[in-house]
Amino acid sequence: MGQGQTTGNDKGSAGAFAVICRRKPVLVVALVAAAASGVATGEPDAMAQSIERVKDQPAHAQGAEQVPEGDKDPLRGSTFLFDQSITTATADVGLQTPQSQVPLYEWWMSLRPRWNFNDHLRVQARLDYYKEFTNAEQTTNRDEDVFGDIWTDLIYSTPLATEGRWKNTKVSLGARALWPTSKISQASGVYTTLGATAGVSQKFILRGADAPVFNSARLGLSFTYLHPFSDSTTPNNPNFQYTRVDTDLRAFTSNQITGQTLSEHTVYGILDAGLDITPKLSATLDFILINQWHYAPTDACVQIATGPACPARINDQQYTQLGWFVLSADYEIMPELSVGLGYYNLANTIAPDGTARTLFSGGDHSLLWSPDARFFLDVTANLDHIFEDITGKYKSKSGDANAAARTARQQRILNELR
Fold it and tell me: What pLDDT, on a 0 to 100 scale, did the predictor assign at position 79?
């Protein structure tokens, strides 16, 4: 993905996505059918498990599980996400643009293991795999297998109080390290990326957990800072070479990947809002600002007839900003499995004509749509619940699968930006 820009797809064939669906197995349908079958064929056991699980739900603050510390599953919160997405231009529902001639249909699989030391401190990791089944511009080859960077976090989170007005207010602090297993990081000469996270969230009780509808709402604000450690300020790869010409039209060999320098400092601001429509159905609206301060290019002089000319830097802007809008709905089929459906758009906050995009503008000036906006359908498996079912234990909270899916989507594109 380019610096400060989303990747634009050309427009085209009306049957592209239909052909793809005929050729590839629809895993989501199979998973949902299997889940429904399990519920239908195991009513007595399911009822017994439900009773046991209700006993283990927290009675007070968020995360304050009313079970002995030694009986809590240290893997709680571990998940696996399977996501399918298609661009709006591929589906021929884009605004002011025809259907894409370079369609995009992609799978994304993300393993999110966790280890909880106690109710407050945990370590977690993220391993991503992408499979693009079309020949879009995001990958070099058709049907290319793409691995993301490996994320590792150390997180401390706690409610501000166990009683009173602050019991539903939760704060968190964390340290993050990204390890360069992706082709993008390796081609950019990145050794590792280090950073920190901080956030606060507030839960608002509406009609309560026992109500059939409108149980609660939430509002959260979080920030992430990242800094890469690399062998240069401009992406380069010694195994990649091509011939360029300098200002004197002399040919030379270069291994520079792109003309845009690496982002020296990146700050994400995430505003998260959600509504629990029923105990199993939730809706989420997120807006994420991605701020990047790139390294300044190296100063250079050009030799002309009268001597060297050294251009002065005048308002040489190295700051870029992207806005990311995510709208989704999640339904928990069972504690072990949830499904989600939604839409997102990632776009530079500056439109092609140089004006600022806003949420309320139309066409190319809108933060809500671009040719690369996507529809997605995903399934989140709650691995800790599956493990606890196998071992006969259950100590985690209901709704974890929905929460894990929301967190994964907030990080969907972050490790592709440099």
Answer: 93
Q: Exposed, middle or buried by CB within 10 Å (0-12, 13-18, 19+), for 225?
A: middle
Instruction: Give the tokens for residue 360.
Output: 């309320």
Report the pLDDT value the prediction gives residue 65, as an integer from 0 to 100: 40
Residue 1 lies in a domain: no
Task: Quickly list H helices, 162-225.
Answer: 183-187
pLDDT, position 141: 82
3 found inside a domain: no
Residue 73 belongs to what domain range?
16-298+316-416
**232 within 8 A of 189, measured Cβ to Cβ:** yes
Full-model pTM: 0.76
Residue 306 belongs to some domain of the structure: no
Helix orientation angle between 27-41 and 43-55, rounded to the nearest 10 degrees: 90
Number of domains in the chain: 1
Q: What is the pLDDT of residue 148?
A: 94
Residues whose CB is less than 8 angstroms from the CB of residue 92 and which lie 6 or more positions away in sequence, other chains included: 14, 98, 99
What CATH number is associated with residue 293? 2.40.160.40
CA angle (416, 408, 346) in 5-degree steps: 50
Q: Is residue 305 part of a domain?
A: no
Q: Which amino acid is at 9?
A: N
Alpha-carbon gap, residue 184 to 186, rounded angstroms:
6
The two tokens of residue 279 are: 């105990």
Residue 410 has a pLDDT of 60
What's the helix, strand, coil split of the chain in %, to 5? 15, 40, 40
The sign of the torsion formed by the CA atoms of 237, 243, 248, 250 equals positive
Enumerate residues 6+ apart whose C-beta is below 8 A from 5: 348
Residues of the chain with pLDDT under 70: 1-71, 94-100, 247, 393-418
Q: What is the pLDDT of residue 354?
A: 85
Q: Is 34 helix (H, G, I), strand (E, B) or coil?
A: helix
Cβ-in-10-Å burial (0-12, 13-18, 19+) of 57 comes to middle
The tens digit of pLDDT for each residue in 302-335 reads 778 888 888 877 777 889 999 999 999 999 999 8
CA angle, 66 then 67 then 69, to 5°: 120
In this predicted model, what pLDDT tens digit does every residue of 136-168 receive, in sequence order?
877 788 888 999 999 999 999 999 998 888 999
E-strand spans in 148-298? 150-159, 169-179, 190-205, 216-230, 242-245, 251-254, 263-276, 281-294
